[in-house]
Specification:
Layout lengths: L7 E5 L3 H13 L3 E5 L2 H11 L4 E5 L7 H9 L8 E5 L4 H9 L4 E4 L4 H16 L13 E4 L2 E4 L4 E3 L5 E3 L2 H12 L7 H9 L7 H14 L10 E4 L3 E4 L4 E3 L1
Parallel strand pairs: 1-2, 1-3, 3-4, 4-5
Antiparallel strand pairs: 6-7, 6-12, 7-8, 8-9, 10-11
Length: 246
């Protein structure tokens, strides 16, 4: 999938050479690009030049680091914007932290501009297109399970008191897979395939992290979960029935 010429990318990296290199390459491949060095400049760009279709966010930044900025983005009005995290360190702990904060994907430095473009395409594809087995027209805008409803247009949760709970793109995709396969055990490999595809080199632990984040959104006790249960040596299951609601 080649990005549309209207796709707008924000790069946040304090290395001028990287900003210039990536800007030149991505523009040549049909993207509009704004590149800034710090979190302060990022916020200014979001207000002045947004909305953006994807944010490329370096982990190591002067002042506020990438993890802090990622967390803030996920709790603000840009919570639905995909984030691709760049890190100079390849340890699993950094990848886990980035995913926990809400990043959609990560890429370790050094990397090629071509590889970054491939990751951008993959993240955009996952963000814009539901998995093939989830592409049906909803009979209702809202799907209900237990005390919760999911607004399938706005892509957020609604609790029994009518309070909205925001979801990141990755959290929503995982929840949609569970809603489309209620009361069916799904392995980590199946969840990876249905939510992420195989373009990104993610790892099974990322599914455990996403499940943990989703349980927190559902206020589910991880020790005795009511909704998303762990099936030992097999995977996870949404234990509730799902119904369309008006």
């Amino acid at each position: 999938m080649t990005p549309k010429t209207s796709d707008h990318i924000l790069i946040v990296d304090d290395d001028r050479d990287i900003r210039e290199l990536l800007t030149t390459y991505l523009v040549k491949n049909g993207l509009r690009v704004v590149a800034v060095p710090t979190g302060r400049h990022m916020r200014a760009a979001l207000e002045a030049s947004g909305p953006f279709d994807l944010i490329i966010l370096d982990l190591m930044l002067p002042g506020e680091d990438g993890l802090t900025l990622c967390r803030d983005l996920r709790t603000g009005k840009y919570k639905a914007t995909p984030i691709l995290m760049l890190t100079a360190r390849s340890e699993e702990a950094d990848r886990i932290l980035g995913l926990e904060m809400g990043a959609d994907d990560y890429l370790a430095k050094p990397f090629s501009a071509r590889e970054l473009l491939a990751r951008i395409r993959a993240v955009m594809r996952r963000t814009r297109m539901l998995p093939p087995n989830m592409g049906t027209v909803e009979p209702s805008q809202k799907l209900g399970f237990g005390e919760w409803q999911v607004d399938t247009v706005a892509r957020h949760l609604i609790d029994e008191a009518g309070v909205m709970v925001a979801l990141s793109g990755a959290e929503y995709r995982l929840l949609r897979v569970f809603l489309d396969h209620p009361q069916k055990v799904l392995s980590r490999d199946q969840l990876l395939s249905l939510t992420q595809g195989r373009e990104a080199e993610l790892f099974e632990r990322s599914i455990d992290l996403l499940v943990s984040r989703l349980r927190q959104r559902l206020r589910d006790d991880a020790r005795e979960p009511r909704y998303i249960k762990t099936v030992r040596s097999e995977g996870y299951v949404l234990a509730s029935a799902v119904e369309a609601r008006d």
